[in-house]
Design a protein that fits this description.
Layout lengths: L1 H8 L6 H13 L5 H30 L3 H6 L2 H12 L3 H9 L6 H10 L4 H25 L4 H19 L1
Helix pairs in contact: 1-3, 2-3, 2-8, 3-7, 3-8, 6-8
Length: 167
Amino acid sequence: VFGILILCGFGLPIPEDITLIAAGITAYYGMTNLWMMIVVCLVGILAGDGAMWFLGNRYGATLLKKKAFSKLMTPERIADARKKFKSKSGTSRILFFARFMPGLRAAIFFCSGLLHIPYRSFLMWDGLAALISVPAIIGFVFYLGDQIDFVVRWIKRAQYGMLALIA
């Protein structure tokens, strides 16, 4: 679970939610401890996200010179991201809501490192969002494990609702 969540932070095309659901199921069936799974998942998610921030912070300028990255992150997009991060409360909103945007999350965290957003600020807002989503998903699965179809439908609806709210 920990390793998969770190890889998800790097953009592995497996939704983190699937891993969190699996963690909740293992706790539901008594294979693991609920609180241990929550802690392991929180640490794994924050480590993966932090790795993306670190890559952007340390190697972002170098990576942007590579053809694959330069097509995805054009100078115009970087300038737009800089403007949004620097706006009043932009950093907090972007980093908090990035946790709920699969597919964009890794790019946003990489970009926050590239733009030298302070790691403490990054960790605080990403961590706050993770402190909400991780225990909610794992706990929901743990307490309603016998109704897993309902749980998965609820999680999908919650994600769509969050995406609509962000939009």
